[in-house]
Design goal:
Helix content: 25-40%
Protein name: Thiamine-phosphate synthase
Pfam family, one: TMP-TENI
Binding site for Mg(2+): 67, 86
Radius of gyration: 15 Å
Family: Belongs to the thiamine-phosphate synthase family.
Distance between the termini: 14 Å
Number of helices: 9
Number of domains: 1
Strand order of the largest sheet: 1-2-3-4-5-6-7-8
EC number: 2.5.1.3
Shape: globular
CATH class: Alpha Beta
Strand content: 15-25%
CATH topology: TIM Barrel
CATH architecture: Alpha-Beta Barrel
C-alpha cells in the first residue's frame, strides 16, 4: 500500500525525530540523495540512507531514495523516486524489479508514460510555489491533479501544508510529499499530526 504521506529527508535534517514521525503514522520517507546544498560523497549518502531505513522501518514505514537506484539497492531501501534527468523508469524497473518505483511528472501524458514504463506511482508538482528546492518550473495548481489522476496513484508535492494537503487529496491525489511543512515548524511531530489528519 503506497503511503499517503511522504516526508523528504536530507543530511541537514534532525534524524532523531524520524522514529517519532514513524510512530505517529508517517509511513513514507524519501531520502534526498542529490541536489543537496552541501556536496556529499556517495559513501555519505549511502550512510544516510541506511540511517533513515534503520530509524523508520521498525515502525512499519517504507524508504525511497531520490534519483539513485544504486543507493536504494545498496542501502536496502524499499524504492526509488526518479526525476526527468535520472535513469529512465523502464531501465530502473528492469534492473530493480522489486523496488517501489516513482516518477516525477507534470501532466497526464507523463503519468501515462510512467505507468507504461513500470512506475508504481507518480509525483506531481510543484503544485504550489515552494522555497524548499530552487529552480523548479511554475506551480501547476490543484486542477493539474484532477487532470492527471487515474493512470497511477499521485503524490502531490510543492508548497503543501496541512490545509493544502487536504485540498490535494480532494482534487484526486493519493497523498502528498512534504519538506518544509514538517521541517520548518518548531514542532515537527505536531505538524505531522496535522498532515496525517489532512490526508487520511
Amino acid at each position: 500500500m503506497l503511503p499517503r504521506l511522504f516526508c523528504l529527508v536530507g543530511p541537514a535534517d534532525d534524524l532523531s525525530v524520524l522514529p517519532g514521525l514513524a510512530r505517529l503514522g508517517i509511513r513514507g520517507f524519501q531520502v534526498r540523495a542529490k541536489h543537496w546544498s552541501t556536496p556529499v560523497s556517495d559513501r555519505q549518502a549511502l550512510e544516510l540512507v541506511r540511517r533513515v531505513v534503520a530509524a523508520v522501518r521498525p515502525h512499519g514505514a517504507v524508504v525511497v531514495v531520490d534519483d539513485r537506484v544504486d543507493l536504494a539497492l545498496a542501502g536496502a531501501a524499499d524504492g526509488v523516486h526518479l526525476g526527468a534527468l535520472d535513469l529512465p523508469v523502464a531501465e530502473a524497473r528492469r534492473i530493480a524489479p522489486g523496488l517501489l518505483l516513482g516518477a516525477t511528472c507534470r501532466d497526464r501524458d507523463e503519468v501515462c508514460r510512467a505507468a507504461a514504463d513500470g512506475a508504481d506511482y507518480a509525483g506531481l508538482g510543484p503544485v504550489f510555489d515552494t522555497v524548499s528546492k530552487p529552480g523548479l518550473p511554475p506551480a501547476l495548481g490543484l486542477a493539474a491533479i484532477t487532470a492527471a489522476a487515474g493512470p497511477l496513484p499521485l503524490l502531490a508535492i510543492g508548497g503543501l501544508d496541512a490545509p493544502r494537503a487536504r485540498q490535494a487529496r480532494e482534487a484526486g491525489a493519493h497523498g502528498v510529499a512534504v519538506i518544509g511543512a514538517l521541517w520548518r515548524p518548531p514542532d515537527p511531530l505536531q505538524a505531522a499530526r496535522e498532515l496525517l489528519d489532512a490526508v487520511a
